[in-house]
């Protein structure tokens, strides 16, 4: 089931992200909270209560601290554990 991300999902999301660092950047709860506040959408794939993946979409040209400026405003592809710029 795809649903809105909640704060109670953050630990699972950070864990998923940290297990996929070869395709995504590091993420902690503080940075995740910032991204969710900036987001147009923050969704999770919930499989029987377990977070199987997530996606965070940002408005066009939104500046994200620490993100390479060349990726801002470009579409991202979805990875089972998060976003790939």
Plain-language structure description:
The protein has one domain. Helix content is 22%, strand content 28%. It is globular and about 35 Å long. The protein starts with a strand and ends with a strand. About 12% of the residues have low confidence.
Strand arrangement across the biggest beta sheet: 1-2-3
State Rg. Answer: 12 Å
Taken together, the total number of domains comes to 1
Mean pLDDT: 81
Succession of helices and strands: EHHEEEE
- The low-confidence parts are 69-78
Our count of helices gives 2
Sheet with most strands: 3 strands, antiparallel
Structural class: alpha+beta
| Distance linking N and C termini | 24 Å
Fraction of residues in helices?
10-25%
- Please state roughly what percent of the residues sit in beta strands, choosing from under 5%, 5-15%, 15-25%, 25-35%, 35-45% or over 45%: 25-35%
| Shape designation | globular
Count all strands and give the number: 5
Brief account:
This protein is an alpha+beta fold and 85 residues long. The chain has helices at 10-18, 29-38, and strands at residues 2-4, 41-47, 50-57, 77-79, 82-84.
């Amino acid at each position: 089931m795809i649903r809105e991300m909640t704060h109670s999902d953050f630990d699972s999301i950070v864990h998923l992200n940290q297990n996929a660092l070869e395709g995504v950047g590091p993420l902690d709860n503080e940075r995740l909270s910032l991204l969710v506040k900036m987001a147009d959408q923050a969704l999770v794939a919930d499989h029987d209560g377990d977070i199987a993946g997530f996606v965070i979409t940002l408005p066009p040209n939104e500046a994200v601290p620490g993100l390479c400026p060349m990726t801002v405003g470009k579409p991202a592809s979805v990875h089972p554990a998060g976003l790939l710029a």
